[in-house]
């Protein structure tokens, strides 16, 4: 199986990526035990199918180590030139406080060692407290490390539009911002997309499947009880659904998505992801990969041959108009992490 050319994006002059990114949050510990050997074997399956781009973080358990081991095995079995086919985007999530060049560099060096790379493809930076302005110092030091060759590109995770603008106006070149974006959570449409379009910034979106809720598995099912929510993702996105409009309206959304999916011969998840991929400024959608446990490679591949029409979008928008405005409930992108 090879993906179509539509699956690729020339994200930066030196990085050609798959628009479905393999999310590695699922190896961080809250989604079931991961067997390292089975995980690495699964990573080969993803890359061989064309899903060559990985999203991870310093705090996602062994995720950076998995990338390092996968790269070593890839080079050993297929030659070092094969490494150029894989892109790995990590994150740095420090505790707020005073930032020094030494401290920043030490943390970047940890990721370099764990991932077994000379330069990080993309460093996505997250900051917990906007009132602590040291985030600008951290980014300036990372920009220096970029000039020195340790980082290829700088990016953000869960920054709102206001602070993305502050960073941009400080002269720091940001190529992407990672935000929650789904048919339930459409907050990026309010301000974020427009700003990103104006400043050539891409969005990488997570939560686009609401932790798996946007699938046939939950269609026609009663509201899940707390002990049914067996993963961190399910607990998180059940709260998001409740804030958006509740289980009854969510079932109405799932029923509509099922009819659209049947019309195109695809799955509900395919429609949910395609809907977000089609939004302006969106570079890619992150889909969680439970490595060695559950694979959705063949189903995800169908996304790139799916084209939603105006009628499909209108039907989805009709449901959205019945929901609460999460921008009013929560605030801008990432605000849920800073309450």
What's this model, at a glance?
Helices cover 40% and strands 14% of the residues. With 339 residues, the protein is an alpha/beta fold. The strands form two sheets. The chain has an eight-stranded parallel β-barrel, surrounded by four helices. Strands 1-2 form a two-stranded antiparallel ribbon.
Task: Write the topology of this structure.
Elements: E1 8-12, E2 15-18, E3 20-23, H1 36-49, E4 53-55, H2 63-78, E5 87-92, H3 101-115, E6 122-125, H4 134-147, E7 154-157, H5 161-169, E8 176-180, H6 192-198, E9 202-206, H7 232-244, H8 247-264, H9 268-277, E10 282-288, H10 297-301, H11 310-320, H12 326-329
Parallel strand pairs: 3-4, 3-10, 4-5, 5-6, 6-7, 7-8, 8-9, 9-10
Antiparallel strand pairs: 1-2
Helix pairs in contact: 1-2, 2-3, 3-4, 8-9, 8-11
Which features characterize this protein?
eight-stranded parallel β-barrel; 339 residues; TIM Barrel; two-stranded antiparallel ribbon; alpha/beta; 14% strand
């Amino acid at each position: 199986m090879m993906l179509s050319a539509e699956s690729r994006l020339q994200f930066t002059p030196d990085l050609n990526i798959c628009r479905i990114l393999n999310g590695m949050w699922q190896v961080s510990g809250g989604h079931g035990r991961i067997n390292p050997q089975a995980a690495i074997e699964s990573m080969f399956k993803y890359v061989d199918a064309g899903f060559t781009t990985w999203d991870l973080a310093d705090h996602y358990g062994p995720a950076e180590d998995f990338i390092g081991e996968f790269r070593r095995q890839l080079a050993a079995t297929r030659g070092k030139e094969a490494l150029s086919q894989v892109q790995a985007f990590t994150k740095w999530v420090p505790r707020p406080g005073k930032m020094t060049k030494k401290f920043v560099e030490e943390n970047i060096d940890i990721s370099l060692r764990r991932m077994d790379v000379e330069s990080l493809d993309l460093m996505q930076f997250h900051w917990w407290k906007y009132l602590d302005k040291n985030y600008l110092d951290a980014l300036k030091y990372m920009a220096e490390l970029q000039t020195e060759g340790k980082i290829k590109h700088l990016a953000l995770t869960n920054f709102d539009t206001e602070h993305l603008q502050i960073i941009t106006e400080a002269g720091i070149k940001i190529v992407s911002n990672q935000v929650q974006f789904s048919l339930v959570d459409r907050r990026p449409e309010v301000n974020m997309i427009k700003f990103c379009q104006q400043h050539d910034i891409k969005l990488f979106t997570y939560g686009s499947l609401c932790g798996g809720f946007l699938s046939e598995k939950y269609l026609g099912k009663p509201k899940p009880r707390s002990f049914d929510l067996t993963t961190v993702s399910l607990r998180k996105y059940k709260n998001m659904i409740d804030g958006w409009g509740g289980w009854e309206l969510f079932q109405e959304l799932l029923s509509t998505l099922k009819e659209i999916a049947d019309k195109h011969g695809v799955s509900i998840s395919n429609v949910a992801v395609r809907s977000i991929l089609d939004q302006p400024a969106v570079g890619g959608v992150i889909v969680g990969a439970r490595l060695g446990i559950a694979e959705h490679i063949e189903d995800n591949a169908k996304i790139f041959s799916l084209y939603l029409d105006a009628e499909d979008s209108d039907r989805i928008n009709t449901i959205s108009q019945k929901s609460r405005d999460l921008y009013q409930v929560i605030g801008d992108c990432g605000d849920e992490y800073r309450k």
